[in-house]
Write a structure and sequence with these properties.
Blueprint: E1 7-10, H1 17-21, H2 25-33, E2 36-40, H3 43-51, E3 56-59, H4 64-76, H5 78-94, H6 98-113
Parallel strand pairs: 1-2, 2-3
Helix pairs in contact: 2-5
Length: 114
């Protein structure tokens, strides 16, 4: 269903430390769907968006005006929006997917068993 949309909004509110440092599954759903990610500025999401550039934008979690500004920017800058969508899908396909992540688990399990 997420693939039917251009933007995925990861509107996390850091009301406790766990919500500030966790990266929720919706980020990965949006990547797999090829959505441009519009993420609130929790520490985890800032780190993610800085690590994986050009997959979306950040907005201030307690500032509806900033969220509106970012949505307006994406609406008015379709080339950037489509670039983010393309980059998100490419990242999901090439790097951040179960096939790659499962190799890390296999390696750890192999080391524990041996």
């Amino acid at each position: 269903m997420a693939a039917d949309f251009d933007i995925g909004i990861a509107a996390e509110i850091p009301y406790c430390e766990n919500r500030n440092i966790c990266l929720t599954n919706k980020i990965f759903t949006y990547l797999l769907a090829g959505n441009c990610i519009l993420a609130s500025d929790t520490d985890a999401q800032k780190d993610f968006m800085n690590t994986w550039e050009n997959v979306g934008l950040l907005y201030k979690h307690n500032d509806a005006e900033d969220l509106g500004k970012q949505i307006r920017f994406l609406s008015e800058n379709r080339d950037f929006l489509y670039k983010c969508r393309k980059n998100a899908l490419s990242l999901a396909d090439s790097r951040l997917n179960w096939e790659n992540e499962s190799e890390k688990y296999k390696k750890i399990i192999s080391e524990v068993l041996n």
